[in-house]
# Entry
Amino acid sequence: KFMMFWRNGVTYGRVVTLSGSDSSVQASKGTSVTIGGGGSRFRHSFANCGNGKIVMVNYNSGNTDYESVVLQVASNGTGTTFTSGSAQTISGDGQNELSSTIFHSSGKVITAYITNSGGWAWYYRVGTVGTNTVSWATEASLVGNVGSLRIFEAKTGGNGEIIAMYYSGGAVKYKVGTISGTSISWGSEQTLFSTSNTSGLSGL
# Structure
């Protein structure tokens, strides 16, 4: 099974089930669902929380804000239908620039985005996933107005560190963070590599 999403005025989704093998694979589609109750949403990022639950973070062009929506596939992910929670605003003054959204091994969901909360810069929030909502901790600053930021978890077992990697000043740089509850403590900025040929670096 997989989930597919598309936008036609508003964002829709459905569960698609594959059966058969090789050249005889067949696809059957579940009922389409309107995501978050409507709204024109762009730049989706996803966190797979397990048991058929997905947290989608997106940019709503109509409200110029960032939102989160909890999706739940029926029968703990084995069903052919799913439900969508209501859209929750997580930050205003958006710039249509989202990072990745991850489900951390601590059981929290983490998302990063660029917004004008006090000058364009990257911020993040840590959330606790409920039945059809996310309880988001207070927005916190990550780094200034840099390019192509991505976040990852270092899969070291237990409470893995979070890596935020981005393009800044002709170099690829990163910070390593340690999560505790709904807070992240970030180390100092480090340089992965820099080069005088910067034409491709902004596409990190």
Observations:
- Residues 38 and 80 are 21 Å apart (CA to CA).
